[in-house]
């Protein structure tokens, strides 16, 4: 098995792990968001179920910490791949931070149109207090 194919396998597993943690985080957040309404719908006092609220909040915190560790792993694997001279592996639809310009697929149109490429990641100078299109008052 070549280093490139090993890297491709690891990239796929990394993407799957990132997606799984994101999905778990989203589902846990949905659960936590549903708890107050469920408590109220069941006519329970604010005291009832506090341990449930605490558990959901702790789960979100733990998943966020796990996600942070996985992002660090992603960064370390990317650095190792560069050090080993492996080709860039693109798995997943999202642009990565620092891509200049973003290469697309991150939602909404498949990238930057060539006509707009020179505008990507440019600071907007002298735009303060200007009237935006379709508005009648300065920002």
Description:
The model is unreliable at 105-111 (pLDDT under 50). Helices cover 53% and strands 0% of the residues. The protein is rod-shaped and about 60 Å long. The longest helix is centred in the first third of the chain and has 39 residues, at 3-41. It has two helices and no strands. By secondary structure, it is mostly helical.
Strand coverage percent: under 5%
Q: Which whole number gives the mean pLDDT?
A: 78
**Which stretches are low in confidence, meaning pLDDT under 50 for 5 or more residues running?**
105-111
Shape: rod-shaped
- With helices defined by DSSP (H or I, 4 residues minimum), what is the helix count? 2
Number of strands: 0
Question: Structural class, from secondary structure content?
Answer: mainly alpha
Alpha-carbon Rg, integer: 22 Å
SSE string, helix = H, strand = E?
A: HH
* Helix proportion: 40-55%
Q: What is the CA-CA span between the terminal residues?
A: 58 Å
Largest beta-sheet characterization: none
């Amino acid at each position: 098995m070549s280093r490139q194919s090993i890297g491709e396998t690891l990239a796929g597993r990394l993407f799957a792990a990132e997606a799984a943690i994101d999905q778990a985080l989203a589902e846990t957040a949905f659960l936590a968001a549903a708890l107050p309404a469920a408590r109220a719908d069941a006519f329970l006092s604010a005291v009832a179920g506090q341990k449930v609220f605490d558990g959901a909040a702790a789960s979100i915190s733990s998943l966020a910490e796990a996600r942070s560790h996985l992002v660090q792993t992603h960064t370390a694997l990317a650095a190792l791949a560069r050090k080993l001279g492996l080709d860039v592996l693109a798995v997943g639809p999202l642009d990565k931070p620092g891509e200049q310009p973003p290469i697309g697929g991150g939602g909404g149109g498949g990238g930057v149109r060539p006509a707009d490429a020179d505008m990507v990641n440019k600071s907007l100078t002298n735009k303060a207090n200007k009237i935006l299109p379709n508005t009648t008052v300065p920002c």
